[in-house]
Amino acid sequence: MPTHSSVPVAAPFRKLGMPRYHLMIMLGLAAVLSVAPFLLYPILMIKILCFALFACSVNLLLGYAGLLSFGHAAYFGMSSYVAAHAAKVWGLSPELAILCGVGIAVLLGCIFGALAIRRQGIYFAMVTLAFAQMVYFFALQAPFTGGEDGIQKVPRGALFGLIPLADDKTLYWFVLVVFFACLLALYRIIHSPFGQVLKAIRDNEARAVSLGYRVNQYKFIAFVLSAALAGVAGGTKAIVFQLATLTDVYWTMSGEVVLMTLIGGMYTFFGPIVGAALVVLMQNYLASVGDWVTVIQGLVFVACVLLFREGIVGFIASKLKRPL
Amino acid sequence: MKKLCLGIIGAACSITAASAQLSDNTVKIGVLTDQTGVFSSLAGKGSVVAAEMAIEDFGTKIGGKKVELVSADHQNKADVGTQIARRWFDAEGVDMIIDVPNSSVVLAVQELAREKNRVLIVSGAGTADLTNKACSPNGIHWTWDTYSAAVSTAKAIVQEGGKSWYFLTADYAFGHTMKADVARVVEATGGKVVGSVQHPLNTSDFSSFLMRVPSTNADVIALANGGSDTINSLKQAQEFGLTQKAKIAGLAIFLTDVHSIGLQTAQGLYLTTGFYWDRNDETREWSQRFFKRHGAMPTMSQAGVYSAIMHYLKSIEGVGSDAAEKVVARMKETPVNDFFAKNGKIRADGRMVHDMYLAQVKTPAESKAAWDYYKILRTVPGEEAFRPLSESECSLVRK
């Protein structure tokens, strides 16, 4: 697996451990995302950001720890329910509501993670899926989630009680800040010694054990971090769309986000963002095509698997011979 | 010169304004429906076809201004649905959204339409909350709801002697609400509930639930579930021979469900519908036209889409404006009279009250032609079919 250790690091960002071209990509991304709401519909852009975060959280496990979680909808969806409930019923401001959502995602991540990391490969995936389905049926039954009707009319409220988020553009800037904060934190995690150990575990778990690393602890922390990040995405989505429904906790959501990660490129840092953007844009622009949406989605996936085995960004990275 | 020009432009503007005050000079209708999932046959493409027919029949123009149609697939996801609705309202100038099967999507879109002050007419979805707890001054619920589909069936069956009821309830809000509404009616009309069992969503094996039925000696098995659960439980009840002893009451069944189950299995089933194509000459005439374009007979939600759009466009023509509050006010004042409804009226809570029909599915021998599925047993008057305003929790209802 490629590492970045030999790549020159830009002086002011040495602490972030970010090579110059990664910095350029980050700045480019920031520039594009700052202009985007003036060109595209802001709510659509926000949705892309939320799903990009969600896909990044899956990629932290899948790409960097080699753990395929098939139950990330549980953290995403439960967080959106709790955030929606906190904002609507308890009347909390949006940032606190999202934090409540993250709290429940971390809690679930701790419980499920502690149990799931005892198994590997397909068994790990099945265990996470089973737990996620438990959460789904809980959400279907629990009185506060509104069953299949979901929670509607969630107030967007005012950020810190000061800045009203009713305007779509204001909301976009808020989500953009959250997005970049999470992205930088994730970057830092992946490129820290902790992240290096994760990659070592992914590549050869037995060797990592023989080197004296407590593999399960590393996996557990990665799992909880990933759940937390999924929680941020879910909570934010609930505030933005002013609703929380069963779609967010259903297993197809877990599948969709894995799909986004794979299309974008799972060993890459920027891949999931591209994958999420692609899938969300497809869902959006194909909505008027009707029953062909799923067929086209399937064809795109088949094409990606056949043409870019490592995902779109992974393909570009291998052409450039640099990790992206 | 400049003043003259401005004057002419001003005069021109005021003339067009007088003829019809329409936002961005068009009336734009959005059909938001499920085109791929479980509701795609009862609404879906057929709803779009019905909307196209309505606009063509109306004449595609109101006072020289165009009537346009857009449609989209909400994929049964509330976030996809609201995102499309937001884009339609904010960027594309859509004045009215129609159909919207799936309760989670429609409840979210109802809130959005209220916020953006546009009209929402619901045909495909059945959740009675739309005109109850979640009612909105901009929302009209046209075709059916869980209350009318379930309660009329229950009343009629009890009156015909089906006294002891056994419930097969889907274990989520939709099933529970339906069961509670029906059980109340059954007990109020002199029947009794002898047993009830809850099954999880998307059950494929109903044997353990159905095996308890014979020991209860129930006259009626009520299916308080929907979609594939209804189809599976019905098939298995038939296989166990339960349908010979007991009547089966379907609480949310559409013509296309019967079509896909087949008469062999569905025969004898009691249900309530807001529309049946083969009821009289008017319904037949319209339905045959629909059939030519769509290749299937219309369900009540598809017929409702046509009827609602007609009433909406006529109301715009009548008030000369597409502003939501004026149009809705006119729609509520004017009775609905077409092939779909006779003297239908829209109540303060947004419920369009019209006659419903108690039907029984024909046996294969009784069915003379394709799509000849229902025997209409009784017309249920609107006042009886829908939840009375006195029981309403809607804030728009003055008590």
From TrEMBL, chain A:
Main location: membrane
Subcellular location: Cell membrane
Native organism: Microvirga alba
InterPro entries found in the cross-reference section: ABC_transp_permease, LivM-like
Transmembrane feature ranges: 20-41, 48-76, 96-115, 122-139, 171-190, 220-245, 257-281, 293-317
PANTHER family named in the record: ABC TRANSPORTER ATP-BINDING PROTEIN, HIGH-AFFINITY BRANCHED-CHAIN AMINO ACID TRANSPORT SYSTEM PERMEASE
CDD domains found in the cross-reference section: TM_PBP1_LivM_like
Keywords per UniProt: Cell membrane, Membrane, Transmembrane, Transmembrane helix
Membrane topology qualifier: Multi-pass membrane protein
Keyword Magnesium part of the UniProt annotation: no
MF terms in GO: branched-chain amino acid transmembrane transporter activity
Protein name per the record: Branched-chain amino acid ABC transporter permease
GO cellular component terms attached to this protein's record: plasma membrane
Domain of life: Bacteria
Keyword Cell membrane: yes
TrEMBL record, chain B:
Biological source species: Microvirga alba
CDD domains per record: PBP1_SBP-like (cd06327)
Domain Leucine-binding protein: residue ranges: 26-362
A Pfam family annotated for this UniProt entry: Peripla_BP_6
Xref: PANTHER family: LEUCINE-SPECIFIC-BINDING PROTEIN, PERIPLASMIC BINDING PROTEIN OF ABC TRANSPORTER FOR NATURAL AMINO ACIDS
InterPro entries, A to Z: BCAA_transport, Leu-bd, Peripla_BP_I
GO BP, sorted A to Z: amino acid transport
Keywords, ordered alphabetically: Amino-acid transport, Signal, Transport
Protein name: ABC transporter substrate-binding protein
Ranges annotated as spanning the membrane: none
